[in-house]
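Cross-posting from the chemistry board since nobody answered there.

I work mostly on the small-molecule side, so proteins are not my area. We synthesized pyridoxal-5'-phosphate and want a rough idea of how it might sit in this target. Sequence and SMILES are below. Is it possible to get a predicted 3D structure of the two together?
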Amino acid sequence: MAGKPDSLKPETLAANALGWIDEKTGAIVPAIHPSTTFLRDADNSYDTTGRVYSRADNPTYDQVEALLNTLEGGQGALVFSSGMAAATALFMSLKPGDHVVAPSVMYWSLRNWLNDFARTWGLDVEFVQSADLDALAKAMRPGKTALVWLETPSNPLWDVTDIQAASDIAHKAGARLAVDSTSASPVITKPLAFGADYVMHAGTKYLNGHSDVIAGALVTAADDDHWNRVKSVRKNLGAVLGPFESWLLLRGMRTLYPRVRTASANALDIARYFEGHPGVAEVLYPGLQSHPQHEIALRQMTDGFGGMLSIRMSAGTAAAIAVAANTKVFTRATSLGGVESLIEHRASIEGADSPVPGDLLRLSVGIEAIEDLIGDLAQAIAVASRGA
Ligand SMILES: *Cc1c(COP(=O)(O)O)cnc(C)c1O
C-alpha cells in the first residue's frame, strides 16, 4: 500500500488517490470490501488484521479517509453515511447541558436539527450572526461553551467568517471550533490551518462531485479522547457509509481540484457579469469586491472563491421563480457541488421561518462552458422580466 510522499501538491495526491497500490494484485484502483465481518485469529484475538466488524472497520474507508485527512492537514478522518450524520455525530459527542453556538444563517437542515432534536436532547443551542466576531465573542460562556460551529462561506448568503479569529475566540473560552467547509472544499479553504479543531464535509457535494452519492466526513486536528468519542458515536449510532459509496467518493475526489477550480472560475465570471445587470439587484459572492467580507476571503480562500453564489432579482420573488422556471442549462434542483449547474429558489424550500429573501436564487455553478452558463441566465432573466 506504499503511497506517494505527502510533500507532493494536493492536486497530485488527489489525482493519484495518494498512490496506494493493492499489494496482493497490483491494482491501482482499490477493491470494494462488502464483507461485514473479518477472520478471527486461532488464538481468539484479532491481532492479525485488527478488523472485527464492518460497522467500525470497513477497509474501503481507509484510502478515502487518508486522502481527505491529507488534503485537510488533519490527524484523522472519518467518513459517514451523510453530511448530516457527520455533523450530528460531532454534536452527539458532546454532553447534555453543553452550550453550543452556531450561525443564525446556515445549512437549513442542520439548523432545524439543532433547534429541535439537539435542544430536546439537552444541548444549550445559541444562534449568532457568526461573521460578526463581536457577537460571537459575546456569546461565549467560558467553561460552558463546548463547541462553536461555523459555516464559511455560509448557505445561501455566502457570508465569510474569519476562521482564525473565530478559533481564537472559541479557544479563549475553552471551546472547540468546527467548520462546515462543504461549500469551500479543501481546494478553497483549509480550516485546520486557521486553528479549527474539526472540519465537516457533506461529501455529497464537491468531494464526490457528481450528484450520485450521499456521504459525509469529519477531519480532526487532534487524535485525542474527544476524537475517540466521535468514533464511538459513528460506530454505535451506526451512521456508516456503504462500501460502494465510499469507493465512489474516492473516485470522485480524484478530480476534486480541476472540478472546483473550473467551477470557481465560472462562478466568478457569472458574479462579475450579473453584478450591475438591470434585472439583478445584488450578487452575493465572496470573490466580488462589493462582498462585505471580501478582504477576509482574500486571506482565507485560495484558488478562487468557490462555485456557489446567489443573485437577488430586482423584480422580487415572482421574478426569481420565473428565472428558475426558464433556465435550460442550469437545472432546477436543490443540492450543490456537482459538475452540472443547478439553480434553486431557496426561500420556498426552507419555508415560512427562513431568513432567506424571496427574491434570491442560489446557483451551484458547474464546469460547463462559461458562455453557455451566462447566456442561459441572461435569457432566463430576459424571459422573466417580459413576463413580470
Ligand atoms: C448538503 C449539506 C449538508 C448536509 O449533507 P447531506 O449529505 O445532505 O446530509 C451540510 N452542510 C452543507 C453546507 C451542505 O450543503
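Reply from a structural biologist on the board:
Welcome over. Reading the output above for you: The mean pLDDT is 96. Residues 256-387 form a domain with the Aspartate Aminotransferase, domain 1 fold (CATH 3.90.1150.10). Happy to explain the C-alpha cell format if needed.
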